[in-house]
């Protein structure tokens, strides 16, 4: 069956809903990262979402490992899971550009923000714009990412 163009938006929305449910049920990169160089936690008291985000940033400023743990609503877990899939392997500058692009898309009334980042399937998270109470659920992991990268922490040294 060929879909009528008028249904395309609804179908896309259904696909995105499935993507979010899938990531909420089976979060990717879930757990603690034993060799993390950077980490940050995030709390969204409005909803009760909590997470810790772990990064391993190598000498070339590349995020060579990433994971998260925590608990929260489906949107917060799916957003964190999608984040880990997207950010793994990127350099920190590009990761921060994703942070900016994704959080702008989720908080602005229009989707014309463009800093050169193609957010791809992260568009699935844009729907929270219609539900202001859920925006913090969806942005929580991204703020944790930004905080973790900007902590510029060095591994503890006894030298
Ligand atoms: Zn939530």
Please characterize this protein's 3D structure.
By secondary structure, the protein is α+β, with helices and mostly antiparallel strands. The chain is built from 4 helices and 3 strands; from the N terminus they run H-E-E-E-H-H-H. A 3-stranded antiparallel beta sheet has the order 1-2-3, covered by helices on one side. A hairpin with a 5-residue loop joins strand 2 (49-57) and strand 3 (63-71). The termini are far apart. The model has no long low-confidence stretch (mean pLDDT 89). Zinc ion (ZN) binds at residues 44, 47, 49, 72-73, 75-76, 137.
Keywords:
159 residues; alpha+beta; three-stranded antiparallel β-sheet; globular; binds zinc ion
Number of strands: 3
Catalogue the unreliable spans.
Answer: none
Q: How far apart lie the N and C ends?
A: 68 Å
Walk across the major sheet and give the strand order: 1-2-3
Number of helices: 4
N-to-C series of helices and strands: HEEEHHH
- β-strand amount: 15-25%
Q: Strand count, sense and closure of the main sheet?
A: 3 strands, antiparallel
The structure class reads: alpha+beta
């Amino acid at each position: 069956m060929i879909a009528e163009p008028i249904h395309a938006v609804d179908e896309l929305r259904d696909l995105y809903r499935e993507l979010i449910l899938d990531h909420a049920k089976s979060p990717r990169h879930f757990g603690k990262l034993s060799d993390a160089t950077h980490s940050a936690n995030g709390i969204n008291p409005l909803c009760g979402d909590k997470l810790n985000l772990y990064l391993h940033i190598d000498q070339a400023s590349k995020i060579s490992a990433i994971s998260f743990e925590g608990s929260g609503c489906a949107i917060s877990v799916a957003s964190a899971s999608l984040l880990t899939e997207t950010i793994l392997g990127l350099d920190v500058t590009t990761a921060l550009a994703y942070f900016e692009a994704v959080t702008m898309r989720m908080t602005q009334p229009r989707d014309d923000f463009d800093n050169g980042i193609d957010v791809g399937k992260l568009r699935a998270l844009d729907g929270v714009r219609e539900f202001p109470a859920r925006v913090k659920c969806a942005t929580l992991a991204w703020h944790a990412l930004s905080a973790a990268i900007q902590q510029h922490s060095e591994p503890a040294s006894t030298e």
